Structures are given as C-alpha cells and as structure tokens.
Amino acid sequence: MVQFFFHGFRSIFHGSRAYWIWVASLLALVLLGLNAYARQLAQGLATTGMGDEVSWGLYIANFAFLVGMAAAAVMVVIPAYIFKDREMHKVVIFSELFAVAAMIMCLLFVIVDLGRPDRFWHLIPFIGHFNWPGSMLTWDIIVLHGYLFLNLYVCAYVLYTTFHGRTPRPSLYVPVVFLAIAWAPTIHMITAFLFQGLGGRPFWNTGLIAPRFLASAFAAGPAFMILVFTILKRMRAISFESTLIDKVRVIVTVSLLINIFLAGSELFAEFYANSADAVHISHLFGLHGESLLAPWIWTSLGLNVVAALVLLSPVRSNPTALIASCIMIVVGIWIEKGLGFIVPGFIPSTLGDFVQYVPTLNEIVICIGIWALGLLMYTIFLKGAIPIVNLQDSH
Amino acid sequence: MAKDPKLHAPLSRRDFITGLTVTLAAAGAGAAAMTPLLRAREVPSLDAFLQQHYKRLTAEDKKAIFARLEASIEKTYGVKATIGDPPPMDGVEFAYALNIGRCIGCRRCVYACMAENNQSRDPQIQYIRVLQMKKEGRGIDIESSVHDYPQEEAGDPNYYYMPVQCQQCKNPPCVKVCPVKATWQEPDGIVVIDYNWCIGCRYCEAACPYHARRFNFAKPGIAAEDINPDMAYLSNRPRYMGVMEKCTFCLQRTRKGRYPACAEVCPTGARKFGNLRDPNSEIRRIIEQERVYVLKEHLGTIPKFYYIFAK
Fold first, then answer.
1. Count of structural domains, chain B
2. What ipTM, to 2 d.p.?
3. Which residues of A fall within a CB distance of 8 Å from B43?
4. What are the residues facing A236 on neighbouring strands?
5. What is the model's pTM?
6. What is the secondary structure of A127-175 as a DSSP string?
7. What residue numbers bound the domain in which A225 lies?
C-alpha cells in the first residue's frame, strides 16, 4: 500500500517542463478560485449574480453538465466490458478516472451553491434530517456518492493489483463495473428529475428532460474522451489503434442526433401550441423581449448542428475536423445545459417578471477554480495510472 | 506478471525538490487565499453550529436556545427582545381572502409586513409583491403584470392591483423538495422555516410557483430602531445570512388571536383573515358566497389564499 502511494507521489513529481507549467497554471487557478470562494463565504451569495428571481445560476449549470459528463463514462465502459472490446479495455480506466474527477467537481459545485455549507451535516442521514424519499435532492446525493465510490473502487482496485504485478480478479471488480454501468444513467436521470418534477416551473416540467439530459451527456462525455485519448496519444503517453476513436465517434454521432431530435421535438410542441408557458422558450431564443440568453442558445444550436453535419459527412475521418467537432459538441452542450436550460427556467419568474442573470466575476472565478481543480485531479490520476496501465499492456 | 523495477524506482532528488517546492508554494498561497474569511460577515457559534432541528428540541433545549438568541439580539442591536414559541391552536386552520375589487395598490401591507417581521432593509426583503394589471386588455394576467410601478400610480382605476404573498398551500411544493426538512407545514396550515436548520440550497425557491420565498443573499441589515422586539422562533426573529425566509401569516400575532400586520394595516378592507374550520367565520362566508379564485389552480397546490371580486 505504501509502495503504491509512493509510486503515485513519484509519478506526480516526475514530469517535463510542460507538465510542471500545466500543473502550476491549474494550481494558480485553483487558488484564485479558493480566494473567490473565501470571499463568497465571508460576504454571502450576494457576491454572485443570482437573486430571488434567478436563484440558480452558473454553479448549478456546471453541476448539471458535469453529472452528464460523469455518467457518460459508461459509454466507453459498456463496449469494454459488455462487448469485450480489447482496444476499449486499454483506455476504459481513463474514462472511469474522469468520472471520479467529474463527480468530485459536481459535489463541489453543489457545495459552493449552498448558502450555509457549514450546515452540510444536516444532510447526513440519522445525524441530520435527511428528507428521503420526498426530496429529489436527497436521491441525487445518494446516487452521486454511490457512483463516485463505485468508480473509485474499480479504479483503485485495478490499479493497485496491476501495480503489484497481479492480474485483477474479475470476481472482485467486474460485478462492481456492471453495477456502475446500471448506475450511470440514474445519476443523470435523477438530476433531470430534480428539475422536471417541479410543477411550478413549466419550462422544466416536461418528461423529455431526462432523455434529453442522457442524450446530450452521451454526446458531450465521449466527445471529451476523444479529446483526452487523442492528446494522450499525441504525447506518446498511451497507445491504441485508431479504430477506437472511430467507435467512440459513432457513439457521439448517434447521441448527438438523438439530442437534436429531442430538442427539436420540444421546440415544436412549445412553439406550435404557443401556450402561455411557451414564453420561457420564446424568451430564451430572443423572440420575447430582450434576452441575454439568445446569443448563447443560438450559438449552442449552431455548434451542435454544425458538429452533427461534420460527423455525418466524409470529413469526419480527418483528425482535425473530428477534434474541432468534439470541441464544438462539448462547448455547445455546456451552453445548452446551463444558459439554455437552468437559467431560462427562471425567466420570466413565476410572477411574470423578466429579470436577467449576469454572473459576477467572483462567481466565474469560483467556477474556473473548480474546473481547474477537476482537471488537476484528472492530470494527477492519469500521471499515476498511465505507467501502471502501460505495464499491464506490455505483458 | 513480474514486478516492474521502473514502477518501484526511488524518487530522484531533483523531482523531490521540484515537487516539494510546488506543494509548499501552493499550501502557502492557499492559506493566503483564505484571508477574506477573516472579514466574514457572520460566523456561527459552536452552539449554533451543533443546534438540532426544531422538532427534535426539548422544552429545555428551546429555553436555552431562545435565551441565547435573545442575548445575541441584545448584544447586536441593544434591543431587549422576547422570542416566543406560540403553538398552533386546536381546531384552527388559517386562510386569507383578498378583494381585488378593493385593493388600490398602496403597498401599505408591504411595509407593515416588513416592520412587523424584521426583514432585512439593506438589502430589502419584501414578502408581499403587488402586481399591477391593466383592466382593459388581458385583465387578470400575471405574465403581463408590473410590480415596480411608481408609488404615485397607485389607486389608478384603470388597473387591477393584486398583492401576492405566500399562499400557504395545503399541498406545498416547497416542503416536499427540501432535502433537510428545514421547512414544514404546521397543524394550522402555516408553512414555516427553521432558520437554524436551512442549508440554503434554494430548491424550495425553485419549487414555489408563487415567488413567495426569499433568500438572504447577504447578511440581513436592519437598524436597531426598526427592530420589532415581539418575536417568535419560527417567524420574525432575526434571520441569518444564507438562509431562506417567507411569510408566516404573522404567526407571532395570529396564534394569539390578532390579525396579520398586512390585514390590519389595509386601508380599504380588501384583506380578510380567519379560521377556515370555523363555519361562522368571515372567511368562510366570503369563500362560500363571493366569487373567489386561487392562483395557478391547475398546479394542485391548493392555496389557502383566496382572491375575490367584490365591491
């Protein structure tokens, strides 16, 4: 055990100049975020752009997006474990490690959104007063922690045994992998239920939210993994056959098309019926009064559609085009989940008030800090895991 | 598989020094980054931190807590306040009726509410929002209403004025969603919050269809001379930064047989308040005989706040 952690430290401390610049830059951003959070703790959530009208903003938006990214790890795990894809097996651990980092980011985004993080213990069952099964938020807490620990266990067990030169015993982790596969969709589904169960918010109160969340996550998550795999391969850190990227690309394409279809279906129902509740979506698209969100949602829609066209055309086999469309998908879906889903649910308010939401610099710095921490953790995980994984492959 | 010597190699001195330098620099900078906490607007005491949920407190716990709160109010504002805990009365379920035919939009209720309930004045927190709606055109239509009309426009006969506050729903979505049961419905129908238990996630605010809940985004600011010293634990005692609050039908008054501040101050008699379970009460007569409606009936929240059209 000591050796295992010592190896971890040694790997983390051993790197090129570029590596240290990357780590130091992320650390600097984390510290800036920490400083911004200390300011928020000291002065309250008044340091954010949120108010009684738009009472959830960038924090919850990033939370919803990252739950999807974490859930999407399953799209690499399924081919590896269920369809026994050997190439996928080489990279599956990197996807699971990302799920761990993403889950930690999710929990941090919830914590920074709390007005009283010091009372976090009120959520602990029995000691606190856990409103389960009534509140969907309590369900979310259970599934998020469950998913975090399932993935943490699988990663730790596989890496630890491989490190000691043993082959991981399937009976000790494969059942957990299958449980995690079944578990993954629930984390994003329940996060969707959190919103779609609110009758007083017509923009969210539609049964399509959970399927849309899953489809968009299964596009954005694997798209992000394509970026990670490509970067690691170019750095000569890992090796795999390029057919692997093609397989993940198919997953991304199909999910993206389903996502666009579901969003289109929702747009049709809202705009054609044109009921009083359609005001949220008209406002979102800038068709009902001034809207700060409109440029964002049009950008998001544009990015998604262009990426889909690229992925459907023969250009997709060009690595640069593929990378560009993956970036477009990740950015497009990030906008769709946050500024295109969380914020418009609050505009207009339940009493018909159009209050715009503009995040403050402090709020943005906190978000950047959490992202930097997530990427830093992921970097460290990869740094420790890659030598072990490569060792396994060489045998 | 054999152990790989590369994986078990010792740490080189160079890597150790680089790593240690970065770690120490990060730790030092991290401590420096936390300095804004030294100027925190509000720091909970250990007693407050460990305090249990209202419903789990014994009579003795309550006594000690109320005394502690009173002492802290005296220290902060120099005001001798009493924190009571009036229980709900047997056979009583409160309901409200508001006559839109009479409301002139003067907002006296808004300010009487603030004076009674010790809301923050800076930033200002109001429980009642008066919506102004043009009679000709869409009539009673929340979507096209205006709430920030200038005071001198009040009383315009071309407009309806519709004050909205907590509807004290029989089926409150806010209570259902709270992850820690910090908000609940009392036997007399009033939805209350334990300000010492709320974690400030604002899920209830998202769930409320009536914009009835308010969050303390900053530390509540109220001048000593504005403090109403007659307080109750579940209603108008001073609030904390980072917690929710809402209208409690002035339970510190109504549970002792008085009217809510908003009803008492109304100059036109547009506001009526009473016991829904008393068949001879004024509120029952109004609901049974007048043309009443409730807001967003289709949501199934079953508000106990009725709007009436009457002379």
1. 1
2. 0.94
3. none
4. none
5. 0.95
6. TS---TTT-HHHHHHHHHHHHHHHHHHHHHHHHHHHHTT-PPPHHHHHH
7. 2-394
